[in-house]
Structures are given as C-alpha cells and as structure tokens.
Fold:
Amino acid sequence: MPSPLRYDLKIWLASRGREGAFRERQLDLARLAVGETVLDVGCGTGTLAIAAARRVGVTGAVAGIDPSAELLERARKKARRAHVDVAFAQSGGEELPFPDAAFDVVLRSLVLHHLSHDALRSAAHEMHRVLRPGGRAVLVDMGGQQPAQAKTMHAHHGGRAPFDLDRIAERLPHIGFTVIETGPIESGMRRLERL
Structure:
C-alpha cells in the first residue's frame, strides 16, 4: 500500500482534483441530515467521513474505521485541519466494534471489491447489525454493465471488472436490507470501472 500522502495524491490525480465532488454525491445519496450518526467503513484517509461530519454538524456524530493505522493517522490530521470531530478507529468491516443499532447511516465506498466471499457476507451482516431500524446503507463500488473492452484499473486488458456490486445488491434482502435505489454514480476518476 502506498504511503498515506501518496494514497491521497493518487486519488487526487486519478479524479483530476474532483474527489470532493464524488464524495459529496455519495453523501447526497445518503440523504444525511443534521444530527444523524454515521459510520464510514474503510474510511482510508478520512475524506468521506470528514465531509459527512460537516453535513451532520455538531449535533451529529461520525465514526470512521479502517484496518490501516497509517491511513487513520492521516485521517485524524485531516479532520483536525478541517475542524471537525470524527472518531477514527482501527478495525476491519467484518467485525464492527460498535453496539447494535448504533448508526443512522453506514457508508462503504470502494471497499467491498477487496473482500473475499466470506468477508463480504460478514461485512453485510455487520452493516445491518449496526444500523438503526429505518437506517440507510450507501454502498459504492464497481458494478453493472462495464464499457466493452475498456482498459480500466482492475481489468487492464479490457473485459469484465472482477467485482459486481449489482450481484451483491441482489442478495442484500436475504440479510434484512431493502434495496431502495441502485444505479451509476460518476466518480470522475480516469480508468476506474463503472460505479
């Protein structure tokens, strides 16, 4: 994994400086309201969690988890510079360190494609467990019909992406989720698969 600074630089370059707009679109989909509690699973260097903290305000609460201590340290520095309070903790998403029904919203952005089949199942159950009744999960990852023969980050020679969120979404009702909306979201990132 690149250093945390290189991680942010890579995303900035790939998005041509538009990562902020991509993160804001995700928060629009989450329909965040002032005072809500939010969990960002796989938060990386905290960009989405920090944007969420701005939206929920001082009466809300945001937590971000990631397995990388180095990425979390950068996330903490970024949150301090942004003057927002985000509780960052080192953890994977397969066993969330939170009580049942602790959050109004769970966010997972560009993380699920890294997980094995068993880890995906555990992660989905854990998201459902920590959501309050009526809560919302917003999942953004590769999925749907990909451009034919396009060379992308994960399919270097063209062809299918190795992960399809649409196939995962079909299984979420078996866990207790109700799928409200699916569809593409523009990332602005060059060579990234359709999200």
In short: The CA atoms of residues 142 and 195 lie 4 Å apart.
